[in-house]
Please model this.
Amino acid sequence: MPDPDSPPPAGLLADGAHESMRPGTALLRLTTTHERRSILDGAWWPRSRNLAAELPGLVSALTERLGPITRIGLDSAAWDEMPTRMTVDDRVVHIDVFSVGDDTALVTRGDQDHFSLLVVPPDTPPEAARAAMTEAVRSGNPKQAQQILIDTNTRRQLLLDDFS
Model:
């Protein structure tokens, strides 16, 4: 039986039940399986649209669990400002900017190992955010991030709030 405290082998996520990362770092859930058959590998619920404030906690939590993170691809419309790189825990993380609006963060570990995270909008009500994060880490989930947000009333609620 593997040691539960040892990190997973390179390229693999940890075994076990779905888990939340350490409180106080980032609101993050990761799929915890060696078989990456789902479209998404986890979900992140940032507290604001300030990338400089939010990204260090995400990178630290991911690095602790997956190893050094080299790049993160993010939707430019979801953030107030988008630097091209940041130094987190004495490591440079390159930030790729996309304008596709697909509600994901594409995380790169090493040269080619990619993880795709659902990004729950910061102003999402807690119940909807928890439902979206749970759906994103469900084993074998076939849904795209955008569809998860619609199905959990996350996107619909935000659109209704915009018109209030």
Q: What stands out?
A: Strands lie at 19-20, 28-30, 42-44, 69-75, 85-88, 91-98, 104-109, 113-119.
